[in-house]
Amino acid sequence: MAENRQAAIRKSLSNEPSWDVYRSFAAVLREGSLSGAARAPGMTQPSIARHIDALEQAIDGTLFVRT
Predict the structure, then answer these.
(1) Range 17-26 contact pairs with CB under 8 angstroms and sequence separation of 24 or more
(2) Is the pLDDT of residue 26 over 80?
(3) Span 4-31, mean pLDDT?
(4) Bigger pLDDT: 14 or 34?
(5) What pTM, to 2 d.p., does this model score?
(6) How far is CA 46 from its chain centroid?
(7) Which backbone phi and psi does 66 adopt, to 5 degrees?
(8) Less packed terminus of the chain by CB within 10 Å, N or C?
(9) Looking at residue 64, what is its pLDDT?
């Protein structure tokens, strides 16, 4: 139990996005759209969008222009 709590604390202190976020970013680049990126790994478009939002927050910048 204590190990889980420590892991949760370390994760909350770290602003580093998970590898899933980077994979989603790469999929958007490769496929050219959020919906295309979602089809490739079998995810949903809203999940990919949340990953991109998380990455943009981590870098404090904008990665894609939203239309």
Answers:
(1) 17/51, 17/54, 17/55, 17/58, 20/51, 21/51, 21/52, 21/54, 21/55, 21/58, 22/55, 24/48, 24/51, 24/52, 24/55, 25/51, 25/52, 25/55, 25/63
(2) yes
(3) 77
(4) 34
(5) 0.72
(6) 11
(7) -95, 130
(8) C
(9) 85
**Predicted local distance difference test score (pLDDT) of residue 1:** 59
Cβ-count burial of 7 within 10 angstroms (0-12 exposed, 13-18 middle, 19+ buried)?
exposed
* Residues contacting residue 55 through CB under 8 Å, at least 6 positions apart: 17, 21, 22, 24, 25, 63
In one letter, which amino acid is 40? A
What is the rounded CA–CA span in Å between residue 6 and residue 12? 10
